[in-house]
Amino acid sequence: MLDFYEVTGILPSEQQEEKYRTEVLKDLWVCLVSREASIAGRKEVLNGKAKFGILGDGKELPQVALARAFRKGDFRSGYYRDQTLVFALGMGDLEDFFGQLYADTQNDPFSKGRQMNNHFATALIDERGEWLRHTERNNCSADISPTAGQMSRGLGLALASKQYRIHGELDLERKFSVQGNEVIFCTIGDASTSEGVFWESLNAAAVARVPMAVSIWDDGYGISVPKDLQTVKANISKALSGFEKQEEGNGIMIYEVLGNDYPALVATYDAAIAHTRKNHVPCLIHVNELTQPLGHSTSGSHERYKSEDRLLYEKEADGIEHFIQWIITTGICDETTIDDLRQKARVYTLEKKQAAWEKVKKQSSAWKQKLTAIVSSFPKNQTELVASYLKEFETALNPGLATMMKYAFRMDWALKNKGFVSAELSDFMKMIKSESESRYHTHLYSSSKKSALNVEMIPAVYSPDAPVLSGHEIINRFFDKKFEQMPALMAFGEDVGKIGGVNQGFAGLQEKYGDDRIFDAGIREWTIMGEAIGLAMRGFRPIAEIQYLDYLIYGISPLSDDLATLRYRSGGQQMAPVIIRTRGHRLEGIWHAGSPMGMLLNSLRGMYIAVPRNMTQAAGFYNTLLKSDDPGIIIESLNGYRLKEKLPDNLVHFTLELGVPEILLEGEDLTLVSYGSVLREAFHAIELLKQKNISVELIDVQTLLPFDRHQLILESLRKTNKLVILDEDIPGGASAYMFNQILEVQDGWHHLDMKPLTITAKEHRTPYGTDGDYFTKPNAESIAGEILDFMNRYRA
Q1: Please, which residues have CB within 8 angstroms of residue 16's CB and are 6 or more apart in sequence?
Q2: Cα–chain-centroid distance for residue 559?
Q3: What value does the CA radius of gyration of the chain take, rounded to a whole number of Å?
Q4: pLDDT at residue 394, rounded to an integer
Q5: Neighbour tally for 83: CB within 10 Å
Q6: What residues are paired with 213 via a beta bridge?
Q7: For residue 555, what is the DSSP state?
Q8: Cα 255 from chain centroid?
Q9: What pLDDT is attached to residue 235?
Q10: Mean pLDDT of 25-50
Q11: Alpha carbon distances (Å) from 482 to 622, 645, 715
């Protein structure tokens, strides 16, 4: 732990009194080094070596106390002030800390240079995508910057502990849990408790009775806004008093403790965590009167908004100084020892900072030498053309890949303007692009053998006498068989449990498989998403339901900021193979007939999006995703549950390939591309168009992410030379995305004989009632009419 024994010369001891002394001094050492890291980190930003600093100064003392209660197998779900905790638990060291500050992709173990500093993560999977043994590690779920966003993920991680306590048979190897004893430590700043997800998560944790321990670091401010303008009663634990657990019923245990009182902090964490670990009662530890010696971040100075009295108070209330006074007063050591530790902490931090910087310089120097050598080999007349760029480049301080590319490109540009071509310079730029590709453009999706794109395709098989069932019966039978097949499968959401879902997909299944596997959730979309994320990060296979697609907006933040970015922001070290189940496109009214696919496409890269036209296709996509280690969302057709379908013999085994459209009708005159519920309107429109001798090739894209991986639509365009896109989203929504994919990515524009057409819903939400729906959404008549006009323009 930060080389405590090696640097300080203090020796470990088994003698009880000496052992306690050593442990206290080790905690002090971690605090001192962490503070020096904050000071040095701020300076590195201000001197231009790093871009931005968000630091943990003033929060050191409660974090070493928390670390004492942390056990192997536990998880941290925290935020960007927790460097001291990370140091204390050995999740990272100083060189790791500064490597991330410098955005060093080779030496940032937390995010591979993808996140700003103080955003931590530990590996949960290996390089092959296989789960590591979480029970042998101190685990850290990958941080995100959105304030309070960690809360719902923490809830899900804690729910996994509860499930493992109930279902120990699911993890006999104890890879994920030891009898559900793992506590999830959520940390949050006091100002962020104003976020709705904080309250939503605490409420859900209390109702579910999960082992979640929430630490609130309260330094009195949210950037410049004091807490009396943020929190009722200016005290979050008082504001939460109604949540406090009584003798009977559920609730949370609430503790309030001063942030500069080391013995009280240690005692509080020891008692609180022991109770939560044993009894699965969530707790909240409100650590009050913390300070922020360096201000909120490197972007400004807190002198702008704090009074002189407040600034003086923050010096007097500093937790480290109070800790030192307590150490001296109790006779643990004297001032000379303290001074020695301070000096060694300062020197040690600067040495590690310099070591991290030398790694950056070494990489930069190697690339710089390559480019300089290439330019030095130019003939004199060419060297003169790039002399000004070369001079600027040589004075650049440790240039990164962006600077290398910038100057290489401009030199190449200048040479080509005069008719010169440097193959070496071109090769150098290709090397830079290749390097940047591996550094920054990997791990958005899984590349393991379990990737959803690698799942073996198994076609649906039908008996001659296959029964014909309603869509809701198809999907209900599918879930029944799937829950029998997969013990780690869970499903939950609004009305999913007792009544089996508003469209009866889980009807009767809670009674059969138990209310711990199929259960109801409150009206709290954000935390339903968070529960799914946390469960999936610990080995479960959750299907989290959002009742209608319109409601997904409430859950878009955890999906976009957390789930979709998880694999990417952790540099491929974490995954959460979640399936989000919802339904949409067509029903009734403004908030029950939405199809906001453009929003999903633009915010959920990192997830796959399937848009099945019926329930059999939906089952195929569930099978595919449940065999994979990728997250996805399956949007069932709201008006498809009562339509009749044949039941496949291999309902729980057949799979559908993601990114492979299906030609539903062959035609010669134009290619009509669409998906989901509106395909049924398209079929009716095509029947009308046949009366006008217009032959339409109808293609169901089936998934939007990924989109037409094998360019089937392009092959259709080669035949028809005309493109129409049909979409229930607003103009410029998913239709614009499909245009980009077909015309630009696939180069489909080469095969068009005329301007393509989009047929979409109107810009406003869908009004309530049959007439409002008819004149807002595409329907058979409007589709047929627009395509007829389209063909008349072509024939004119």
Answers
A1: none
A2: 7
A3: 30
A4: 84
A5: 30
A6: 185, 283
A7: G
A8: 30
A9: 96
A10: 96
A11: 10, 19, 36
DSSP alpha helix (H) spans, 395-547: 401-417, 423-440, 471-485, 509-513, 525-536
Q: Give 403's strand partners.
A: none
Contact predicate 295/301, CB 8 Å: yes
Q: What is the mean pLDDT of residues 440-465?
A: 97
pTM score, whole prediction: 0.96
pLDDT higher than threshold 90 for residue 13? no
**Amino acid letter for position 512:** K
- Residue 149: C-alpha distances to residues 68, 496, 520 (Å): 25, 25, 22
For residue 395, what pLDDT band results from cuts at 50, 70 and 90?
Answer: confident
Residues 524-569: pLDDT tens digits?
999 999 999 999 999 999 999 999 999 999 999 999 999 999 999 9
In degrees rounded to 5, what are phi and psi of residue 32? -65, -45
Chain segment 209-250, per-residue pLDDT in tens: 999 999 999 999 999 999 999 999 999 999 999 999 998 899
Contacts of 592 (CB under 8 A, 6+ apart): 548, 550, 638
CA nearest 574: which of 113, 262, 125, 16?
Answer: 125
Distance CA 90, CA 140 (A): 11
Tally of CB atoms within 10 A around 318: 21
DSSP state of 713: H
Contact 525, 496 (CB under 8 A): no
168, exposed or middle or buried, with CB in 10 Å at 0-12, 13-18, 19+?
middle
Give CA–CA dist 720/147, Å, rounded.
Answer: 51
Measured CA to CA, the distance from residue 119 to residue 111 in angstroms comes to 8
Section 492-510 average pLDDT:
96
CB 205 within 8 A of CB 252: yes
What tokens appear for 304 in the block?
A: 């702008």
pLDDT for position 558: 98
Tell me the three-class secondary structure of 629-649, residue by residue: CCCEEEEEEHHHCCCEEECCC
* 398: its two tokens: 């440790």
Which residues are CB-contacts of 267 (< 8 A; sequence separation ≥ 6)? none
CA atoms within 13 A on the CB side of 458: 19
For the chain, domains (ranges, CATH) are: 4-333 (3.40.50.970), 364-440 (no CATH), 452-646 (3.40.50.970), 662-795 (3.40.50.920)
Which candidate, 538, 674, 518, places its Cα nearest to that of 581? 518
- Strand pairing report for 703-705 and 696-700: unpaired
Query: What are phi and psi for residue 698, nearest 5 degrees?
Result: -100, 125
Residue 36: name the closest of 98, 79, 122, 121 by CA.
Answer: 98
160-164, 381-385, 691-695: range with lowest mean pLDDT: 381-385
Q: State the average pLDDT over residues 289-294.
A: 94
* Half-sphere CA count of 108, side-chain side, radius 13 A: 27
Cross-strand partners of 214:
186, 284
Cross-strand pairs, 188: 216
Tokens of 144: 């995100």
For residue 416, the number of C-alpha atoms closer than 13 Å in the C-beta half-sphere is 10
What Cα–Cα distance (Å) separates residue 706 from each residue in 347, 608, 611, 711? 52, 6, 11, 12
> Cα separation of 681 and 464, whole Å?
29
HSE-CB for 654 with a 13 A CA cutoff: 16
For the stretch 637-689, pLDDT in tens is 988 999 999 999 999 999 999 999 999 999 999 999 999 999 999 999 999 99
Query: What does the H/E/C string look like for 725-785?
Result: EECCCCCCCHHHHHHHHHHHHCCHHHHCCCCCEEECCCCCCCCCCHHHHHCCCCCHHHHHH
d(CA 21, CA 6): 17
The two three-digit tokens of residue 98, written as one number:
């500064």
Q: How far is 699 from 664, CA to CA, in rounded Å?
A: 6
Angle, helix 16-46 to helix 335-376, in steps of 10 degrees: 40
